[in-house]
Amino acid sequence: MESLDETSEMPFSRWDCERVCLWLNDLGLNMYLMDCRRWVKNGEQLLRATQHEIEKELGVKHPLHRKKLQLALQQINSTGKVKKMDLDHHWVTRWLDDIGLPQYKDNFYDGRVDGQMLHYLTVEDLLSLKVTNELHHISIKRAIQVLHAHGFNPQCLRRRPSPDEGQLQNIPADVSLWTNHRVMEWLRTIDLSEYAPNLRGSGVHGALIVLEPRFNAELFAQILSIPQNKTLLRRHLSTHVVALIGNETQHKKREAESTSGYVPLLPNAKVKSKKFGIFGHKRNKSDADLEDFICPDFTRRQNGVHQSKERDEKAAKEIGAYSKEINTLTDMLARDKFFDNVPTSNV
Description:
single chain; SAM/pointed_sf; elongated
């Protein structure tokens, strides 16, 4: 099937069935093309379709596929335009390699998780993707935080050391861009080569090391499987971690450890659903909160510092609940501008 011609200015509502099918194919939802040709007459019909119709008539039963389709439709409803997503689901699977979680690539690919879905990813979404390890949840959270900070630039991560890096002191902001592979390279420079392979599939990357208050040298040593009785090696790692992240960042981590209610992060701790069902159909919409999001602060902040906090939280709650009222995404997406400047990736 040929690709959709993005140069056309024709409103989506006036697209015929075949053009809508091309659009679905570009979204990666090509498994629904047969039902689309059977049921969809034009773009207007799809824009007006209810959740029940999308599930029954289009056969979109996968919850993440429904979420992806609804986000795309609400983007069109709010802007009147169709946007090509540069950070598609293929890019996301490569991104999982970068952050050290390749074991989830098949699940994310099957869910067709793309860059826009990362922006609205919830805890329950991750559980449905079989990500149950707490450390892996936090790894994804901090990786998304870095993407937000860099405007979802697909080329912002650092996979290799720069030529002059050896002569310069590492800056935490730069270290936060390190991929899992780059961290493994760093371990080799501090004479811990034999433990570097243990980082594969760990979810350890620069943003986790720098930005996560509960990530410390002790946890790092556990992930690397450095035995408890190798005290000199553990001290060696701790010294280099502090040198890597800087004294200020280390001080903030110490402050976090001293707060009441602090719970250390463990390599094998599990995340449990707070809801009755996978997507919380028995949970009241009012019970949902910003903590449903993997990156709640950034989801709220993307609407601008001058907007009302209550208004943002209300919109975020409705998306987080993933209820039939998901159409309230329209207002959020209308104000969401950060995807406008995402550069095309060849990564």
